[in-house]
Amino acid sequence: MAQSGVKQPGPAPLQARISGQIIIDELIRNMELGRLELGYSILVPCVFSVYLHPDDFARVAGVQEILKEDARRALNARLGEWNAKPSLFRRAGPRKTYRIAQNDWWIELFADSERSVPPGDVEIHSELAEVAQPGYRGTKTTLIAREPSVTSARVSRDRENTRRQAPRVFAEIQYRDDTGPQTYFVTQDEVTVGRGGENMWVDLPLYTSDDVSREHLRLRRDSGSGNFSVVDKSRNGTWLNGKRLTRDVEAQLGDRAEIRVAESLKLNFEVRR
Question: Quick check: 196 and 202 in contact, CB under 8 A?
Fold first, then answer.
């Protein structure tokens, strides 16, 4: 029987469930902590391995590609903010540009099968580039205050296995929208492009003005020849190398092409052979 006047310990407080926004916020925090200042640039980590408890991973597994795309946009937006105003970390001397050491972010989510990551936690291991820099060990962060528990050897193994399983990239698209410069890798035979929105899924969402339709155009790849074509689906038009396309009429793309989306932005398309 409990003694009168003695407060009995209650259950440990439950950590809030992991959400996509929490993961994105932690990626940004990791990037901020992992910056490396050079003579004329400040490099930030761009390779992220994100470990979650298996139960938390299961909650986000079905939308992880969307989550990773949103994370890339958030990271680009933060770099844009830093480069648009005087740096909080600036010292005497020339203004330095925040940048990453490769063309795009690499973000992968992993279920911690060894269950060393507690429920409700996010453990992130990052590097400045795919090949770790000599003398720079990268950054490890957790949401719950604790020492990181996933070993560096396991992180390296998981990254290598993921790269081996990565789908083939058929083409890439470079463009700039309201979130800054972007690169999209084409890994499927059909890609829908536009603003997207409620009840309108697009593979390549463009964050820009309403001049761009929710589904503006489609890219199609012939799996036999590897050749691409484009189809305009918009109200304000699509231009291929300066020539306006006829709506719903397929036009062939060369290995390189400039696609103008309404009057808002340009997509620089290039096939990878």
Answer: yes
pLDDT digits (tens, 9 = 90+) for 216-245: 999 999 988 999 999 999 999 999 999 999
Cα angle 264, 268, 273; round to 5 = 155
SS3 sequence, 75-133? Answer: HHHHHHHHHHCCCCCCCCCCCCEEECCCCCCEEEEEECCCCCCCCCCEEEEEECCCCCC
Q: Rounded to 5 degrees, what are φ and ψ at 82?
A: -65, -40
Task: Give whole-number Cα distances, 270 to 173, 197, 248, 256, in Å.
Answer: 7, 27, 22, 4
Q: Are residues 143 and 194 in the same domain?
A: no
* Domain boundaries, position 110: 20-165
**End-to-end Cα distance, the chain:** 76
Residue 178: helix, strand or coil by DSSP? coil
CA distances from 256 to 106, 193, 250 (A): 25, 18, 17
Phi-psi sector, 237: left (phi>0), alpha (psi -120 to 50), beta: left
The answer on 214 and 189 residing in a single domain is yes
Phi, psi of 261 (to 5 degrees): -105, 105
pLDDT at 14: 46
Strands 97-99 and 106-111, how do they pair?
unpaired
Look-up of token digits 């489609």: 218
Task: Show contacts of 152-159: CB within 8 Å, 24+ apart.
Answer: 152/125, 155/49, 155/125, 158/49, 158/108, 158/110, 159/47, 159/49, 159/108
Q: Global pTM? A: 0.60
Using N-to-C axis directions, what is the helix angle for 20-33 and 64-84, rounded to 10°?
40
Number of domains in the chain: 2
Give the other-Cβ count within 10 Å of 258's Cβ: 12
**CA 17 – CA 84 distance, rounded (Å):** 34
188 within a domain of the structure (yes/no): yes
CATH code assigned at 151: 3.30.2320.60
